[in-house]
Write a structure and sequence with these properties.
Blueprint (H helix, E strand, L loop, with lengths): L6 H11 L2 E6 L5 E4 L2 E4 L5 H7 L4 H23 L6 H14 L9 H7 L7 H16 L8 H13 L14
Antiparallel strand pairs: 1-2, 2-3
Length: 173
């Protein structure tokens, strides 16, 4: 299976993360820049602002691709044993972009749910599989304000729809 983040997947992540050209403290109080790039744990310092300066959007997109690779692509390639659609890959990468690669670590619930994909194309079995993946993704909805994002990632995984315009009531606006 070829595992990569698509351009639609990158836009999906950017819609959730936003873009900030200068260092800021994320919702957990950690120094961040660009499209959710963690500079370090702990608050932004004047030295961070000096060192990082202003990040351009193209640089932020390139950094986001590197972060997606490190946090999601590698975990999928190492731990997911079933074939996935590009939208399913993008949904899982978005999850890991935000949580880190542990969400798809060996033995974790998301990994087990994804790898439980039925071998036959039975609609009821596929619905049950999507329900298992949905429930496992929602385990990462903490703090509670992340529930909407997790619902959107699970919706993308199940339907292949990236935006609210395509019917995702949980999408970031």
């Amino acid at each position: 299976m070829n595992v990569a983040l698509s351009s639609k997947g990158a836009e999906f992540i950017k819609a959730w993360e936003g873009f900030r050209a200068e260092c800021y403290d994320d919702s957990a109080g950690h120094c961040t820049i660009g499209i959710g790039h963690l500079v370090h744990l702990g608050p932004t310092t004047p030295a961070d602002r000096t060192q990082w300066g202003t990040m351009t959007l193209p640089h932020a997109l390139a950094q986001a691709q590197a972060d997606a690779h490190r946090n999601g692509i590698d975990a999928i390639a190492q731990n997911v044993k079933v074939s996935l659609t590009q939208a399913q890959i993008d949904g899982l990468v978005c999850l890991c972009f935000n949580t880190g690669p542990d969400a798809l670590g060996t033995g974790h619930d998301v990994t087990k749910a994804v790898n439980s994909k039925p071998t036959i194309a039975d609609p009821a079995a596929l619905r049950a599989w999507n329900d298992r993946v949905h429930a496992a993704i929602l385990e990462w909805a903490h703090p509670p304000e992340l529930r909407r994002r997790r619902e959107s990632e699970a919706y993308l995984f199940a339907t292949g729809k990236y935006t609210k315009a395509e019917g995702n009531s949980f999408a970031n606006e």
